[in-house]
Amino acid sequence: MKQNDVLIRGEHLTKVFGYGKQKTTAVEDVSFAFHEGEIISIVGESGSGKTTLAKMIMGLLKESSGSIEYMGKPRQLKRHGDRKRYWKNIQAIFQDPFSSFNLFYKVEKLLLDCIKLQGVNLTKEEQLRKMKEACSFVNLKFEELHNKYPFELSGGQMQRLMIARIFMLHPKLLIADEPTSMVDACSRSTILDMLLKLRDENNMTIIFITHDVGLAYYVSDTLYIMEQGKVVERGPAEEVILNPQHPYTQQLISDVPKIHSEWDLA
Ligand SMILES: Nc1ncnc2c1ncn2[C@@H]1O[C@H](COP(=O)(O)OP(=O)(O)O)[C@@H](O)[C@H]1O
Ligand SMILES: [Mg+2]
Predict the structure, then answer these.
(1) Domain ABC transporter: where (predicted)?
(2) Which amino acids bring their CB within 6 angstroms of ligand 1?
């Protein structure tokens, strides 16, 4: 991977929930530098702090201590305008694709809203072309889906629709929190391949969160391994997988005995 500019940098981020006996340190002293056009996987077991870290990066949770720098400047979220500007270039995909959509809207409206969000004036034909292009990017047929409601689609189709929206919005930063854990194997590999394509064609920075080190290896340039709120190991995916240094990483990898032959991602 060529070494691009740093898009977002975290310094000593910590998040503590609750007080006294109820206190949980969900994220502890995590620092990172994520570059433009880089796919970073954050890997760890359930409860290791991945989602909490993602929410701090998204600006949905305030850090207890530490700071974030975005495009070379301290990130400001105090004013409404600051948040609007920050969120304009950040999109997220979550585990449950149905949670991100208005379930009373048909597919066509969900996609149209996404075009309107960008504030460009397009003719009906141009809108249609854009929606078709976005659907075919994720191997969906607009003609078959446009008149359907979300509940008429599978989880995998919904998640791919989510990626079609990302394709249209082309944010600088995409945070995908366990996006493949609720979908079928076929959609899973499509989704992972689409992440690679978004990186390559749009120079997108993608944070891919997973408990599955095999998926992380398939899709990422860089791995961050989290255990109990801390990053215990990080580095180029190849290096970390082929020569893990930390016992926790070694254990994660030994749990996937056939990591080199699992390319079918079934
Ligand atoms: N809003 C919250 N209030 C209290 N504790 C929380 C909250 N969110 C997460 N936690 C705790 O923080 C830890 C990390 O959770 P999370 O970031 O969701 O982990 P992961 O995404 O890796 O499964 C867990 O112990 C969880 O119970
Ligand atoms: Mg989580």
Answers:
(1) 8-253
(2) 17-18, 24, 26, 44, 46-52
